[in-house]
Specification:
By secondary structure, the protein is mainly alpha-helical. The protein is built from ten helices and two strands. It has three domains: 48 residues, no CATH class; 87 residues, no CATH class; 63 residues, no CATH class. Helix 8 crosses helix 9.
C-alpha cells in the first residue's frame, strides 16, 4: 500500500470521505512510533493525539521488569498498579514514582537495567501529553485502538488470510468491498441503488448488439 507518507495520505483522504471537514474535534490514536505522530502532524493538525493504552501498559511492564526482574511476580504487581493509576490520571505520578525508585536503587542495578529504565522513561516523557487518560476518558474519547484492530481482524483477516491464500491488490480491494457491504448495515440499500445502474448498462449493451 506504500510507505509512511502514502499511508498518511490514504488515511487523510478516507477521513475526508467520512466527513472529517465537518467535525469539531479529531482524535488520533497511535502506538507511539514517531512516523505515526508525524503523519498526525502533517495530515490532522490540531488533532488530539492519544497513545494507545495497551501499548502504554506494555511499556509499563518493561519499566517494572527493569526494576523487579522481567516476568517476576513483583514486576507484574507493579505493572498492574501503575496501569490502573495511568488509566485514572496520567503518566506524571508514575514517572515521579519511577524516578524516586531509580534514585533509591541505581547503585544496585546493572547497566542493562539502567539503560532499560532510561529508555522507557524517555518514551513516556516524549508521549506525556498523549497519556492524559483520565482527561481523555472524561471527554469520552477512545483510549485504545482495540475496536479498530478487532474490526480489521473480522473484516479482513477472517476472509483474506486463510490457509494458502495469496491476493493481488485489485482482487483483494474488490472482494473487501463486497465483504464490507455484506457485514455492514446497508447491504439491501446498496443492491437497490445498483438496480438502475445495471439497467443502464444493459440498455447500452443492447445498443451495441443491434
Amino acid at each position: 500500500m506504500g510507505g509512511c507518507r502514502e499511508i498518511g495520505t490514504l488515511l487523510h483522504d478516507e477521513a475526508l470521505r467520512r466527513g472529517h471537514g465537518r467535525i469539531e474535534q479529531t482524535v488520533y490514536l497511535g502506538d507511539g512510533a514517531p512516523w505515526i505522530w508525524n503523519n498526525a502532524r502533517l495530515n490532522f493538525p490540531g488533532a488530539v493525539q492519544i497513545l494507545d493504552f495497551y501499548h502504554a501498559a506494555e511499556h509499563l511492564g518493561t519499566l517494572a521488569g527493569a526494576f523487579e526482574g522481567p516476568g517476576s511476580k513483583k514486576a507484574g504487581s507493579f505493572q498492574t498498579r501503575w496501569a490502573k493509576k495511568l488509566k485514572r490520571t496520567s503518566i506524571k505520578p508514575i514517572l515521579t514514582s519511577a524516578r524516586r525508585l531509580l534514585k533509591k536503587r541505581s547503585d544496585q542495578m546493572t547497566s542493562e537495567q539502567l539503560e532499560t529504565v532510561r529508555r522507557e522513561m524517555e518514551y513516556f516523557e516524549t508521549n506525556a501529553r498523549r497519556t492524559r487518560y483520565g482527561h481523555f476518558r472524561e471527554k469520552g474519547y477512545f483510549i485504545g485502538s482495540g475496536v479498530i484492530e478487532a474490526g480489521c481482524k473480522t473484516v479482513v483477516g477472517r476472509r483474506m488470510k486463510q490457509s494458502g491464500m495469496f491476493w493481488g491488490e485489485t482482487g483483494s480491494e474488490a472482494l473487501l468491498g463486497i465483504r464490507c457491504q455484506i457485514l455492514g448495515p446497508n447491504f439491501e440499500a446498496a443492491w437497490q441503488a445498483r438496480k438502475p445502474i445495471l439497467a443502464t448498462q444493459r440498455r447500452k449493451n443492447l445498443q451495441w448488439t443491434n
